[in-house]
Design a protein that fits this description.
Low-confidence stretches: none
Number of domains: 2
Shape: globular
Order of helices and strands: EHEHEHEHEHEHEEEEEHHHHEEEH
Distance between the termini: 41 Å
Strand order of the largest sheet: 3-2-1-4-5-6
Radius of gyration: 19 Å
Structural class: alpha/beta
Number of helices: 11
Helix content: 40-55%
Number of strands: 14
Largest sheet: 6 strands, parallel
Strand content: 15-25%
CATH class of the largest domain: Alpha Beta
CATH architecture of the largest domain: Alpha-Beta Complex
CATH topology of the largest domain: L-2-Hydroxyisocaproate Dehydrogenase, Chain A, domain 2
Bound molecules: nicotinamide-adenine-dinucleotide, (2S)-2-hydroxybutanedioic acid
Length: 330
């Protein structure tokens, strides 16, 4: 392996998502077969023993790309020199809860981790998975002044993957045919999965599924409430699909997005895109330049229907920001 190692911190390493995520990162799937991966696992002290078990299994896989595993119960040491910080560790919701019911328990975690990233890492990209992920990313970003704001993102790729899978099933086509399905706004039941600008092959999605009624009804609610449906069915929140979408998120940012295409991620709003207030961590259609830079895709046409949905999810994010305002250091 000729390349420089990539150092990846995963928080909540002993949790459900951690158990699916770590093996795929270690396998070389994300950073390539010629890039050594050094894993830094962060857990609460009570879960360090379980993280050690996961580390034993990682070793037992014999991945040639996995060159180091360290386990920490301290964010400063866990984040030392990392290139990617996958911030998963936090409490999941239970049945009957909305994701933002977790703000008071989970928000403070991202103050401490933002500050630790500030001290320990400079060339880092932080991806927040722990819910409510947009607002937790906002908290981490505000507490990490030394790292550029555009290095922080929150994951809405799972919502994009869910939306594509639902449309593909309805249209009777392969999921690979569905593209440019942007999730706008919050990873919550106010998100807007933009079926109006998405394509099924060369057709509009509306044409592919035979009309708009299903898209505005069962599809919309199905995507918005899929996380809750999984909790109701499994008794636990999504894990393997969340980990897989986190892998997709990192890969999409690393690879150049093909011309005319986009993917979904929640990033800091620049204040000049689609009327979303500056600084909110908002899911937009994104195009990666493949060199570490990305842009919010401009010029996507929004109908009055879409505009209304985007305004609703913006309002919810502003309300969440208000709730955590004491946790925002800048
Ligand atoms: P889990 O309870 O199985 O695991 C969470 C782990 O985090 C536990 O091992 C716990 O000890 C650890 N942890 C808690 N606080 C920590 C801290 N301060 N530092 C380090 N580790 C800490 O939960 P899970 O199913 O893996 O889910 C984790 C989070 O991801 C939840 O908030 C869940 O809601 C969220 N999630 C987000 C998405 C998304 O699409 N954005 C999808 C699925 C789950
Ligand atoms: C999901 O979308 O599956 C996760 O955010 C977990 C949840 O609470 O819904």
């Amino acid at each position: 392996m000729s390349k420089k190692p990539v150092r990846v911190a995963v928080t909540g390493a002993a949790g459900q998502i951690g158990y699916s995520l770590l093996f795929r990162i270690a396998s070389g799937e994300v950073f390539g077969a010629d890039t050594p991966v050094e894993l830094s696992l962060l857990e609460l002290p009570a879960a360090v023993k379980a993280a050690e078990g996961t580390a034993m299994e990682l070793e037992d896989c014999g991945f040639p790309t996995l060159t180091k595993i360290n386990i920490h119960d301290n964010a400063d040491s866990a984040f030392e020199g990392v290139n990617w910080a996958l911030l998963v560790g936090s409490k999941p919701r239970g049945p009957g809860m909305e994701r933002n019911d977790l703000i008071r328990d989970n928000g403070p975690i991202f103050v401490g981790q933002g500050k630790a990233l500030n001290r320990a890492a400079s060339d880092v990209r932080a991806v927040v998975v722990g819910n409510p992920c947009n607002t937790n990313a906002l908290i981490a970003m505000h507490n990490c002044r030394e790292v550029p704001a555009n290095r922080f993102s929150a994951m809405t790729m799972l919502d994009e993957n869910r939306a594509k899978a639902m449309i593909a099933k309805k249209a009777g086509v392969g999921v690979g045919e569905i593209h440019n399905l942007a999730i706008w706004g919050n990873h919550s039941s106010s998100m807007f999965p933009d079926f109006e600008n998405a394509k099924a092959g060369s057709k509009t999605v509306e044409a592919a599924v035979g009309g708009r009624a299903w898209l505005e009804g069962d599809f919309m609610v199905g995507v918005q409430k899929r996380g809750a449906a999984i909790i109701a069915a499994r008794g636990k929140s999504s894990a393997a699909s969340a980990a897989s979408s986190c892998i997709d998120h990192v890969k999409r940012f690393m690879e150049k997005t093909p011309a005319g295409h986009w993917f979904s991620a929640a990033v800091p709003s620049d204040g000049n895109s689609y009327g979303v207030p500056a600084g909110l961590i908002f899911s937009f259609p994104i195009r990666s330049h493949g060199d570490g830079k990305y842009e919010i895709v401009q010029g996507v046409k929004l109908s009055d229907y879409a505009r209304k949905k985007i305004d609703e999810t913006t309002k919810e994010l502003l309300e969440e920001r208000e709730v955590v305002k004491e946790l925002l250091a800048r």
